[in-house]
Amino acid sequence: MNDLMTKKILFVICGGVSAYKSLETIRLFRKNNAEIKTIVTKSAKEFVTPLSVASLSQGKVYDDLFSVENETEMDHIALSRWADVIIVAPATAHTISKLSQGSTEDLASTVVLASNKQVFLAPAMNVRMWQHQSTKDNLNTLKRYGYRFIGPVIGDMACGEYGEGKMSEPSDILNEILNFLSSQSKGKGIKALVTAGPTNEYIDPVRFLTNKSSGKQGYEIAKSLSRRGFDTTLISGPTNLQIDEDINLIKVETTEEMFKATQKSLPTDIAVFTAAVADYKINQKSPDKLKKQESYNIKLEQNIDILNYVSNHNSMRPKLVIGFAAETRDLDKNAKIKLRNKNCDWIIVNDVSKKNIGFESDYNEVNIHYKNNPNKKEKLSLKKKSEISEEIVDRIVNQIN
Ligand code: PMT
C-alpha cells in the first residue's frame, strides 16, 4: 500500500507544545489521501486553532462532548466507529493517565474508550515525566489494553532539557500507520477458521464431561487474524469471552455441534484448531436426570476427530491446517506424533500441567513444529496469549504470502 486512499483517520490533538507537529502530521496524511476528522481537546486549543486544523485536514474538527450540532450529525460512538485508526498526538502525560483509567471526562477520552479500532499514541512530555514510575505504570496498563505507541524519541525538548520524551517526527508516524494498515490487509479475501474452548458431553440433562479450556488462546488467535483482514469464523465451545463484531462467531456446546459447524464452514483457506475437544461422548445419554445411587457405569464412545476430518478432506482441505497439542510430558515427542497422525501442516504444543500457562491463564509458552521441516522447532517463550497469537499470525501471513 503506498497511500491511504479510502482510509479514515481520527486524530486526537492534546495540549502540548508538540501540538504544532500534529498539524504537519495531518498535512502528510492528507497528502497521502487519508480522510481525516480531528478532535481538539480544550488545552490543545491553547497551542493550535481548530481553524488551522480544519483547513489542513479538510475535515470536520470536533471539540465538545455536549454539542447538539455534533451529536445530531455524528455522535461520539459513531465517530469512534467511523475511524479505521485513531491517533492521539501529542499524547501528554495527562492524557495517558486519563486513558489508562478509562476516563470519559471529555470528547477525546470518551471516543477513545468507546473505540473498537486500533489506537496509536504518540507521547510527548518532559524526560522526567516520561521516566516517572506512574507514567510507566500507565503505559503498561495501556499496552495491556492493546494501545500501541509511536515514540517518543530522544532529543532536545522545548523546556530546554535533553532526553527521551520528544514526539516522533510526522513522517515516522505516517510510516508506522502505513505499515500497520498494510499488515492489516495481508489477510484480505482469505478465509480463516478457528475452533476454541471446550466441548461438553452430556451424561444426563444436567451433568456433563468437559475440560478446563477457557477459550482465551483461540479467541486471541481469531482476533489477530481478523485484525490482519482475514475473513474469520470462530467456532467456540462454551466460554465467558466476548469477541469483536467483525468475527463470525458460531457458538456450540458438544463435539458433534462443533463438527457440524466446522463442516458448514468449509471450504476455508486456513484452519486453526485450538479447541480442547472432548475425545469421548456418553454412549447412551440418560433422557432424565439420573437419581443418586452408589455408583454409575458410564459407557464412553469415541467422538469424531474434527481436525483429522478437515486435514484429510479430499476436496476441501485448507491450504494451511494448524493443530494444537495439549501435553503434560514429552511435549515435542508427542507433538511430532500428532503432527504426523493428524496430517497437520503445523502443530503448536503447550504444556497444560503448569498453572501459569496453557489452560485458563492469560499467558502461554509454545513450541511450533512443521511438517515440511521436521528438524525445525520454534519456541515462543512465556508471554501473553494475545502476543503468542500475534506471533503465530505473523507466521501464517508469511506462509501464505
Ligand atoms: O482455552 P485456553 O484456556 O486458552 O487454553 C488453551 C489450550 C490449552 C486449550 C490450547 O492452547 C490447546 O492446547 N488446545 C488444544 C487442546 C487439545 O485438545 O489438544 P489435543 O492434544 O487433545 O488435540 C490435538 C488437536 O486435535 C487439537 O488441535 C484439537 O483441537 C484437535 N481435536 C482433538 C480431538 C477431537 N475430537 N477433535 C479435534 O479437532
Q: Can you walk through the features of this model?
A:
There is one protein chain. The strands form 5 sheets. This protein has an 8-stranded mixed beta sheet with strand order 13-12-9-14-17-18-19-20, with helices on both faces. The chain has a 6-stranded parallel beta sheet with strand order 3-2-1-4-5-6, with helices on both faces. A two-stranded antiparallel ribbon has the order 7-8. The chain contains 14 helices and 20 strands. It has 401 residues and is of the alpha/beta class. It has helices spanning 19-31, 50-57, 68-73, 76-82, 93-100, 107-114, 127-131, 133-144, 170-184, 216-227, 255-265, 306-311, 331-341, 385-400; strands spanning 8-13, 35-40, 61-62, 85-91, 118-123, 148-149, 153-156, 162-166, 191-196, 201-202, 208-209, 231-236, 248-251, 270-273, 280-282, 300-302, 320-327, 346-351, 363-370, 377-384. Helix 1 packs across helix 9 (170-184), helix 4 packs across helix 6 (107-114) and helix 10 (216-227) packs across helix 14. The chain folds into 2 domains: 8-185, Rossmann fold (3-Layer(aba) Sandwich), CATH 3.40.50.1950; 191-400, Rossmann fold, CATH 3.40.50.10300. Helices cover 34% and strands 24% of the residues. It binds ligand PMT. Residues 195, 197, 213-218, 255, 273-277, 279, 303, 305-307, 323-326, 338, 342, 350, 352, 358-360 line the site of ligand PMT.
Q: State the end-to-end distance.
A: 15 Å
State the CATH superfamily name of the largest domain. CoaB-like
- In the predicted model, the low-confidence regions spanning at least 5 consecutive residues are none
Shape summary: elongated
Bound ions, cofactors and other small molecules, one mention each: ligand PMT
Instruction: Please compute the radius of gyration using only Cα atoms.
Output: 25 Å
Pairing-aware structural class of the strands and helices? alpha/beta
